[in-house]
Fold this protein.
Amino acid sequence: MTVVEQYVTDKNLKSRANLHARYGTKNWFEFVHAAMEWQENEHVADIGCGPGWLWSEVSSPLSILDGLTLVDTSQFLLQQAQTTVSALVKDFEPQALEASVCDLPLNDDGFDTVLALHMLYHVEDQPRAVMEFKRVCAEGGRVAISTNSLDNLARINQLGFDVFGAQKQDLGAVLFSPSRARELLEEHFESVAVHRFEDNYEISDAKDIAANLLSFPLGDAADSVRRKELAEALERELISVERPFVDTKVSFLLIAN
C-alpha cells in the first residue's frame, strides 16, 4: 500500500492513535506545544498536518498566532484539519494546500515556524524536503521535525516481525531516524535542540495491538492465514488487565533555529 493509499481516509491513523489514546500516560501534543514555546503573532506552516490533531487534542496557541497554513498530500485529511482548526477559534481561518513537501507552493521566508511532525519517513527525498523547509522559513525562524526512536514500541514491532516479517525496529525510524533528522537539520541551521519523549504503556486488550499492527504496511495486506497467526501469537501472551502487555513509546522532537 502506497503512502497515498494509506491516507485516503483516516482509518489507519485512528487505529494507531487508539493505542496511544487508551494507554498513554503522557500527552505527545502537550509535549510538542510546551517545547515550541509559542510566541505571539507567529505565522506557522504545518507540513503533513494530517487531520489536525496537534491543534485540537489539547489547548493550543491558535488564538495568539498570526496565521496557520496546513499542507498535506491527502485531500481527505487536509479537509478534516481545516474544518477542525476553523471551529476551534472564532474568525481563525487557516489556509489549506494539497501539495508535495518537496515542492511547496509557499513563498520564500514566509513563516516563523515550520512543522514537519512524524511525516518525513514518508518522503523519498528527505534532503530536498529539509531544503524546502529552510527556504520557506524566515530569517530567525525555526523548523521542528519529529520521528520515532528505533526502539519505539519494541515488543509490538517484534510481534509484527514474527508474524508478517515486518521490521523488527520501528518502521518510521528505519526510514527516518532521529540521528538522520539531526544530521539533515545541522547541514542547514545554526543550532538543533533535541527533545526526547518517553511513555510506558500497559496494554490490557490484545485487539488494540492487533489493530495497530494491521494498520501498517505488510499487516494491512495480511491474508486470513497471517491474521490468524497474529491472533494466536497474541493469545499466547495472555494479555489482560491483570497481566498487561508492557511496551514503551519513544519519540524525538528536533527544533532547529
Remarks:
- DSSP finds eleven helices and seven strands in the chain.
- The chain has one domain: 3-256.
